[in-house]
Structures are given as structure tokens and as C-alpha cells.
Design goal:
There is one protein chain. The protein is of the alpha/beta class. Helix content is 45%, strand content 24%. The protein contains seven helices and seven strands. Strands 1, 2, 3, 4, 5, 6 and 7 form a seven-stranded mixed β-sheet that branches.
Length: 208
């Protein structure tokens, strides 16, 4: 059922930070900052450009996606179809990001999830795709190998479990928190410091 499907973007949020995922998808929080606004505008521009053909490449934008196996629903920025030597067309998803490549796999997981959805929808095998980063103005090719597919499937399962639990994880402060649009709502430093003080007082009382 569609109401049991979760957005593909939730996997990206989970891979980046499970607490952020819970704040957005359980507590329904969202605050836009400079980074999210730039990303939203980039996606809107990509989707507005419309479909086109360029020689041996067909381009479809804003493609609706769904996977009943992984319980996902979403939209691909771009699906390129490359004509092969035998006359068939090979699907190649491209996801647009405003920043630069991340040290984690959150963006790659989102792209791989899009490919898995499309594979299920049109019964094809999609070996690779690409991430286009606005800050570097370059594509990063991504191979959908078995390791990334397993990581994506595990992320989908864990994200479903988190959302179904209705429980928001406690914060753990990291450098990435500073660029998160939900840092004011999450309060990772404040809450973590409070927990440390409470733990210290509890330990002192137990030792007294």
C-alpha cells in the first residue's frame, strides 16, 4: 500500500544522521537554511527543463519511482537512456546535489535506491548512475555493485524500522551538525551536555 511506502530521501537522511531522519519523518520537523534552499531550487530547475533527446541519449526529468520490495516512493531528478550497440536503451539515473561529494555514502544510497526502484518498475538491470554536484560542477559516477546494493537495502530496512518505532534517537554531536537545518531543534550540544551532567551526578550519588 502506498501509505506504507517511505520517501527515498528518508534513506539519505538516515544514512546522514538517524536523529535527523526521525525529526523529519516522525516528528514532522523541517527548517530550511541556505543549503536546503539552494538544493530545492536546483531540483526545481532540473525538473522544469522537460524531456529531451540528444543523439543517442534520451533524457527524462522528474520521473516518479516506486519499489514495493523496499517500500520506497520518490522521484528521480533525471533518467538518461543511452542507446546501446544492439539498439536497446540502457537506463542511467542522475541525481543533482548542490554541494560537493560527501565522505559518507548517503548520496550514493539515495541514487542506488532510485536505480533499484526503476529496475523493479521496468524489469531491467541498471549497473551505474551519477551524482552531479553543483559546487564542483562535475559528475561523480557511481557503480551499483553488490556492496552498495546491500548497504542500500539495509538502509531501507533500518529506516522503516526507525519510522515504525516512533522513537527519536538521542543526539550525538558531530561536525556535520553545524550545516544541518535542524540544529536549533535538535540541540545536539545542549542535550548531550545535559546527559553528561546527569550521568555524572548519578555516578556520584551511587558512589556516595
Amino acid at each position: 500500500m502506498d501509505e506504507e511506502l517511505i520517501p527515498i530521501s528518508a534513506l539519505t537522511h538516515y544514512a546522514y544522521c538517524p536523529r535527523r531522519c526521525a525529526l523529519i519523518h516522525i516528528e514532522q520537523m523541517w527548517e530550511e537554511n541556505k543549503f536546503t534552499a539552494e538544493g530545492r531550487i536546483m531540483h526545481e530547475h532540473v525538473h522544469e527543463e522537460g524531456d529531451e533527446s540528444r543523439g543517442n541519449v534520451r533524457i527524462e526529468r522528474g520521473v516518479a519511482l516506486r519499489s514495493l520490495k523496499l517500500g520506497l516512493i520518490g522521484k528521480a531528478d533525471v533518467i538518461e537512456y543511452h542507446r546501446q550497440a544492439d539498439g536497446t536503451w540502457q537506463a542511467f539515473p542522475v541525481e543533482y546535489k548542490r554541494g560537493k561529494p560527501k565522505p559518507d555514502h548517503s548520496d550514493k544510497i539515495q541514487l542506488c535506491a532510485q536505480a533499484i526502484c526503476l529496475e523493479e518498475m521496468i524489469n531491467v538491470r541498471i549497473p551505474a548512475g551519477a551524482l552531479f554536484y553543483g559546487k564542483t560542477r562535475r559528475r561523480l559516477d557511481v557503480d551499483f555493485d553488490e556492496a552498495l546494493r546491500r548497504e542500500t537495502q539495509e538502509a531501507a530496512q533500518k529506516t522503516h524500522e526507525l519510522i515504525e518505532s516512533g522513537q527519536t534517537p538521542k543526539p550525538v554531536y558531530a561536525k556535520r551538525c553545524e550545516s544541518c537545518s535542524l540544529i536549533a531543534e535538535c540541540m545536539p550540544k545542549t542535550i548531550q551536555k545535559k546527559r553528561s551532567v546527569e550521568s555524572y551526578l548519578k555516578r556520584m550519588l551511587e558512589e556516595a
